[in-house]
Design goal:
Pfam families: TruB_N (PF01509). This is Pseudouridine synthase II N-terminal domain-containing protein. InterPro entries: PsdUridine_synth_cat_dom_sf (IPR020103), PsdUridine_synth_N (IPR002501), Trub2 (IPR039048). GO terms for molecular function: pseudouridine synthase activity; RNA binding. The chain is α+β, with helices and mostly antiparallel strands. The chain has 2 domains: 144 residues, no CATH class; 136 residues, Pseudouridine synthase. 29% of the residues lie in helices and 26% in strands. It has 8 helices and 12 strands. Strands 1, 4, 5, 6, 9, 10, 11 and 12 form an 8-stranded mixed sheet that branches. A two-stranded antiparallel sheet has the order 2-3. A two-stranded antiparallel sheet has the order 7-8. Strand 11 and strand 12 form a beta hairpin. The longest helix has 22 residues. The protein is elongated and about 105 Å long.
Length: 317
């Protein structure tokens, strides 16, 4: 249902009424962060855009003041708008500080993709952060050159031949990485991979250690290979830019060559994917409120885990 007829939670008035829309800005929503914008920068842009869209709606009129005038010896009392409360005097009704937003995690400056945010109050936001959500990335990389920061923005420090790297060998090596990380997941959970406890744990689904988990890979596949360019699909938890860029670098070294990361795009974060994420042109009150409403069924779930497999069975161990 369109937000033009229904606001989140209750019918609190027309969308043109800024106060009603502002009161409804409470909950979790998703946006697509472009590359080249930090989390702090994205938060600033979001707050500014939401405040600006609120000011374009119907805001409250200036407060009125009592005016007493002498007309022909008679005191006349009238009520007139107070210019001391006029937007042209005191500024816009809503400013950046009025719209509080917070991002669930940090997506690197050079990365793009799905990010989860809170606006106003959300009881589920902290629970989602603590659920250790799985991130899914499409990683574009290039063989033959190594940089000082493992990314395309760095200075080239080494070159090497890559003609000996074959797709079959690459894929087989990737499978060994996933198997190694799967064993680590059981270790971090405090059980032996070959024990009955590990079997019982595996029956409940993915083995996801709670708390601050080190970098763990649950799925990794080679989706494109046309040397020197290749693309990886990665599903993991506890990741950072150093982990992901370092993974590409170390994989290349084990294959007797060098490589660097060119671009990273997160296409899924926990149960949220690209279809849920608002593009920058849609960072406005109307779209954010519709997004909060759309995601409410997912947010209301306790586990935040997708009901369907989110990566190919062949990629998992």
């Amino acid at each position: 249902m369109s937000l033009r007829t229904t606001l989140v939670g209750a019918a609190v008035g027309k969308l043109s009424e800024a106060e009603a829309a502002w009161r409804s800005l409470n909950g979790m929503f998703c946006v697509y962060k472009p590359a080249g914008i930090t989390r702090k920068g994205a938060a600033s842009i979001l707050s500014n855009k939401l405040a600006a869209s609120l000011n374009r709606m119907e805001v409250r009129p200036p407060r009125r003041r009592v005016q007493i005038e002498n007309e022909n010896g008679q005191l006349v009392v009238t009520s007139v708008p107070s210019y001391a409360d006029h937007p042209l005097v005191v500024g816009e009704r809503y400013i950046k500080k009025d719209v509080e937003v917070e991002c669930c995690d940090t997506l690197d400056l050079d990365w793009s993709g799905v990010t989860v945010w809170r606006v106003g109050h959300s009881k589920k936001f902290k629970a989602f952060q603590a659920s250790n959500p799985i991130s899914s990335y499409a990683i574009q990389a290039c063989l033959g050159k190594a940089t000082d920061n493992f990314f395309s923005s760095g200075k080239v420090v080494e070159k090497a031949s890559f003609k000996h790297v074959e797709k079959a060998r690459f894929s087989k090596y990737i499978s060994s990485i996933v198997a190694r990380h799967q064993k680590q997941a059981y270790a971090y959970s405090g059980v032996h991979p070959d024990s009955k406890a590990a079997y019982e744990l595996a029956k409940t689904g993915l083995v996801r250690p709670s708390g601050n988990t080190p970098f763990l890979i649950y799925g990794l596949s080679l989706t494109h290979f046309k040397p020197p360019d290749f693309t990886l699909e990665l599903h993991c938890v506890g990741d950072s830019s150093d982990d992901v860029h370092g993974l590409v670098h170390e994989m290349a070294l084990d294959l007797k060559t060098v490589a660097h990361t060119c671009a990273v795009r997160r296409f899924r974060y926990g149960p949220f994917d690209l279809k849920h994420a608002l593009l920058k042109k849609h960072w406005s009150v109307e779209y954010v409120l519709e997004n909060i409403n759309e995601l409410s069924e997912i947010v209301d779930r306790d586990d935040f885990i997708p009901e369907q497999p989110w990566f190919k069975e062949a990629d998992a161990v």
